[in-house]
Amino acid sequence: MKTAVASRQARPSRTDKNGRLSHAGKKIWRSRYLYLLLLPTFVWYIVFMYAPLYGAQIAFRDFMPALGITGGKWVGFKYFIQFFKSEYFVRLMKNTLGISVYSIVVGFPIPVILALLMNEVRSKYFKKGVQTIVYMPHFISAVVVVSLINAMLSPSNGLFNQIIQMFGGDPVHFMAEPKYFKTVYVLSDIWQTAGYGSIVYLAALTSIDPSLYEAATVDGASKWKKLLHITLPCILPTIMTMLILRMGSIFTVGYEKIMLMYNPATYETADVISTYVYRRAFEGGEYSFSAAVGLFNSVINFIVIIVFNKISKRVSEVSLW
């Protein structure tokens, strides 16, 4: 008798389960408008991010548009092996990683520094004016940016070459010299994105408790000490989160701007995985090969973000999950 009673008590009753479900349903109903706001984003991710994964199988097939996604013959890792054995594999990996690391080392700290500088500006109107000026390049299209670059670096009448000639130097054809491509690309990218990227850090700076600065002032701390011991530690989680996300795309360099900037003379340092995939897919019609290269690139990025997330969690106790 005692055993039967104990077993009934050990099993959760249907009433308890229904009660828990009812409680969860009530919580969802109370927040129904928030879930409705989330719904378009959820649907967008399903339609444009997860549904296309079905088509990734063409990387393992001899894809022919007339036969559809599943109509081609299954060939396994044929195109992956073909890419690894390609004469361009080392060059593509080197250029992609080189541009990404260059962008992170030189470009990642700039938005942080810019946000710290703007945070120290006390004039409201001057601060808003500076913010407007530094945000504007973000809204300029890549075509216009590359046109400006070509005009500024023109060997005949470009501003930089005119300055070089003023000091007795010879004109330099920056856009046709492979050794200058990465620097031109990264610096122009910093000019275009640094201002907009500082918004996140400015938002993090506004969340710092002002009483911390007041206490530091009473203790006689200088601005430099406040920066090192209050400001930077408070925004460090934001910095690390943004760095983790940036590391997750270390093997992804946008092809639009590079394709507008490069030419056969600069392929040596300018050709990256994304531009190579574009040429093989849309110019050569090799869809399966291009899908294999793109899938390989995505897997590498996924592995990098997991590894760096674990390193960040162990070193700074900040992680995405």
TrEMBL record:
It comes from the Bacteria. Residues 1-20 are annotated as: Disordered. It is a multi-pass membrane protein. Keywords: Cell membrane, Membrane, Transmembrane, Transmembrane helix, Transport. One of its GO terms (cellular component) is plasma membrane. Belongs to the binding-protein-dependent transport system permease family. This is Sugar ABC transporter permease. It comes from Ruthenibacterium lactatiformans.
